[in-house]
Amino acid sequence: MRITREQVAAGLVLVGILAVFGGVYQFYYKERLAEYKKNMEHLEALEQAYDTLSETFEGYEPEVIISWTIGQVGPLEREVLARAEFFNTGDFLEIDPIPQGRMLRFYYKEEFDKKIREMRADARSRVPYCPYPETTFGAPHPDDLAGRVLNPSQVTNYLRKINFGSSMIRMLMDADAVQISRVELWPPRRECGGLLNMRTVGLRFVMHLEDLTKFLDERRTDERYFTVDAINVQNRYLRWPVAPPVEVRMLLTQADFLAPMGHVAGAPGGQPDSPARPSMREGMTPQEILMQQGFGKGRTREGRRNIPKTRWQRFARWFRRYFWPF
């Protein structure tokens, strides 16, 4: 049997058509199917979550549940915000704003030298003089920044470190420290669900025991947050006829409050005496509380029924899942 030119041309056309279909499937339809499969899995997860929520909260008005939730969260949030004023570092981190148009490296050098001079002058003006470590508290020396490009955030951070460390030294001097040998700033950390920015300082100094007791008592009764995480006291002069100075090593922590992103305290229905706020007793679920207060539609959890889907709904869901990839 001899193959004609027409048969060859028809075979080539057929192969070309198959190649086009194969290319469309490989480079377009296959990717769409994978995306469709992923979306269907996401749809199934959403439908499962929706069914669970529908079963859990069936028979209740959404406005009532939202009002009840706000009624519970609102007072707690207001209490947190009321206590937020206690968590602050005072003026320990306050610095002057950076002037516009200033070269940051030269501005940092000016402020660095200014703060070091102020610390020295303050220490020399006290009688008796209290030796202290001349450190930069983790901030770089201006000479080490030669050739580097700074941004305002870095300059602000460096100056705050110097101001914070200097304030800690002044606080010890105000407490009549005999000698300050070390001040180490720890990196800030967030605690209590990100609401508090904690700042711990490692201190090593010499102070009379009476002054140390007074210093700790003042921190305990201060109007802002202080906590002594660890303390070590050594008395090397037990035979002295008078009260000897003691060597102290201490970890002292302060905290700043970080306001949450959103507030519900002023939202509608958030008043603590809202009539939609049910009474609560131990062991009760929110659904039981709402039913007890008469906010349900008269059906208990056991008496709820799931409304069956119609035949058309089941067919549409089946067709959409297996035959509608777009």
In short:
By secondary structure, the protein is α+β, with helices and mostly antiparallel strands. The protein has helices spanning 5-57, 62-83, 104-124, 152-174, 209-220, 286-292, 311-323, and strands at 179-185, 189-191, 196-208, 227-234, 245-257.
The termini sit apart by: 47 Å
What's the alpha carbon Rg, rounded to whole Å? 35 Å
Number of strands: 5
- Binned, the helix content reads 40-55%
**H/E series:** HHHHEEEHEEHH
Largest sheet descriptor:
5 strands, antiparallel
- Low-confidence segments, given as residue ranges, are 262-283, 292-306
Strand percentage lies at: 5-15%
Second-tier CATH architecture of the domain at 86-257: 2-Layer Sandwich
Count of helix runs = 7
Write down the overall mean pLDDT: 79
CATH first level of the domain at 86-257: Alpha Beta
Class from secondary-structure proportions: alpha+beta
Q: Can you tell me the overall shape?
A: elongated
- CATH fold-level label of the domain at 86-257: Alpha-Beta Plaits
- CATH superfamily membership of the domain at 86-257: Ribosomal protein S6/Translation elongation factor EF1B
Report on the structure:
- With 326 residues, this protein is α+β, with helices and mostly antiparallel strands.
- The protein has helices spanning 5-57, 62-83, 104-124, 152-174, 209-220, 286-292, 311-323; strands at 179-185, 189-191, 196-208, 227-234, 245-257.
- Among the domains are: 86-257, Ribosomal protein S6/Translation elongation factor EF1B (Alpha-Beta Plaits), CATH 3.30.70.60; 269-304, no CATH class.
- It contains seven helices and five strands; from the N terminus they run ααααβββαββαα.
- The protein is elongated, with a radius of gyration of 35 Å.
